[in-house]
Amino acid sequence: MAKLVSSPRPGVKRFIGVDFDFGALTNAGRQYWAFVTMLFIFAALGVTAWIIFLTQGPGVMAQRDDFTWGLWFSNYMYYVGLSAGGLVVYASVHLFGAEQFRPLSRLAVLQAGLLVMIALLGDITDLIRPWRTIWMLITPNLTSPFVYTGSAAAAYMVLCFFDLWVLITGKGGHKLAMRMTLIALPFAIYLHTTTAFVLALNKSRELWNTAVMVPIFLTSATASGVALLLICAYIMQHFGVFKFKRSMFRSLSTLLATVIILDLFLLVVEIITVYWPMSAKPGHTDRMSLFFTGPYAWMFLPVFVLGIGAFALLAGRKTRHLPKIQIAASIMYVVAIFFKRYTLMSMGFAIGPLGQYQPPYLPSLIEILFALGLLAIALIFMTIAAKILPLRVPEEELNGAHGPSPGETAPDSALEAG
Amino acid sequence: MNEEREPSHGDEPMTLPQGCTLSRRTFLSGVGATAGLLAAGVVPALVTALAQSAAGSEAGVAASNEAIEGIIEEDQALYYPDKPVYYADPAGKQKWAMVIDSKACVGCRRCVYACVKENNIGRDSGFTYIQVLEMESGRIELESAKLDYEEAGRPDRWYMPVQCMQCAEPPCVYGCPVKATWKEPDGIVVIDYNKCISCRNCMITCPYGARHFNWVRPEVPKEELNPDVPLEEKAFVVEKCTFCVHRTRHGKTTACVEACPVGARKFGDLNDPESEVSILLKTRRVWRLKEEYGTEPMIWYVG
Fold this sequence. Notes:
heterodimer; A: mainly alpha; two-stranded antiparallel sheet; 14 helices; 2 strands; globular; disordered C terminus; B: alpha+beta
């Protein structure tokens, strides 16, 4: 397998077999640095929020006794899910010979790794004594789904970054890349299954306690992950980091439309089971109704409006090949899944186990700053990586032919908007 | 506790409480609806009278524990680290259980207050171990139950106190990722406050809403502090009812049993065939909350 051949330009440093193009940072534009500075400000605010949390205790968060988990948990599900899409795309190159996705492979794996990283960091920001998590290693409780999803997320993160290294350096050749896929894809499924189990394996929470939670997690994860990858690819292309074929975006959006409709289908199936007269139980219908007509509707109805809207955009024969339509649909679904995660979390708390109604939870400023800070950290890594990491898959690897060595056309314009 | 376990009135253990119920209700009601209250009091009194006819056979029942052996068998230690939790003495040979007479309970919440005081529950922590639900007539439906009722002793309602059920199959113990909570050999589910990572998964898994998280440092007035119960360590971790482990392992009964003005709560050892709880389980038609969940609670309701 060919390695990325980088030009002997100043500023390129080779470390663990990867060419880090630090020189590209020096010719980055003003906009680029403005964006990076903004991200650092958000990251600093996040750290400040964390310090306030550590010194003043969890009382600074809007979570409460009856609303046990909050934004950190819905974000954990969200980010873990988003990272799946990357893996699916990357794996389909190797497993199903979907060659049109090959140019995306490095970007996809990087995105997956970074998202799992902030998912895990988000968990830590919820723990007032993070050092106690060492007990997870010393006395793990094998009947707790937390042990599985936590360890899976940590291992998956390592796997993603190692995979990225394999892809960039070409170490181990095609064979290792193929084997990595064989490990990574089942592992991604395992991670999302165990995350779904954190909700589904609770008989105490009526609306969570359904096996359909697992496939819903898998489809939501794939759909939102693919959508995010599509957005990311367009942004990267806009700033000249990549040059993709239009047919690749078309394949990506077809995949997206398919998974979106599967995702919505599973949700509808579950809702029918809740309300059908012969299966309706008051414990279920009382809770679910809050999400259709009650004070929780604002978070659930967007899932349908945005989801059906995104599918309609991608299904339209005349419009679906337009980049703007694809981007709009992708953004709609990435947002829809955020609401869906928030809804899924709230479904466990809207009516407590003793039948008592709880008003909706809205994160406090501290929690929002946490979340934004973490997002900023992931974006910092992504923005810097777009400059200095050889994310572009070399031409000769794509065609198997000898192409001109890429890499020297460092983009001048800055990255903007996440 | 020793007096509690004496089978002094073992042949008809609920008679005395019911008698109390009537007078206490009248006493507590204070304003209005006295006639209604009295009418409501007559019903339990009648039921008690009916029950008395069956009481003759109870003397025989007290001798043998065969009928509840299955229940005792189920109530085993789970994830027990072979030493008692740091704030309690080693467990004895008992299998602790509680029976609550929902017919007698007037919803006065005295058990709640006594429990808060006894267990050093932070006065600003915003929770209590015991939650008393005001139930609508004609149904055991939690969705229509009321927790924040203002008027106790209503004749057209009944009351159900809920607290940690010390389940034989505790979902919380299964759900804790670090084994910071376990079931001791006498059936009490305890939490190691110094190990809890505050993930709050046990609160998710509990079908009885019995576990509570200290979002703030628990604060207790110095003069009301109970030295037998931890306080500082409970900051930012989960806590719950322990069947007053610091009292019951010393032969005393729980604070809620002591505080109940109508004697609606009975606490005791299932291994002792003559304890009140054993006799009640063997002779009365008892039920458990969310029995269909298979959690095998160690708190029964009767009435």
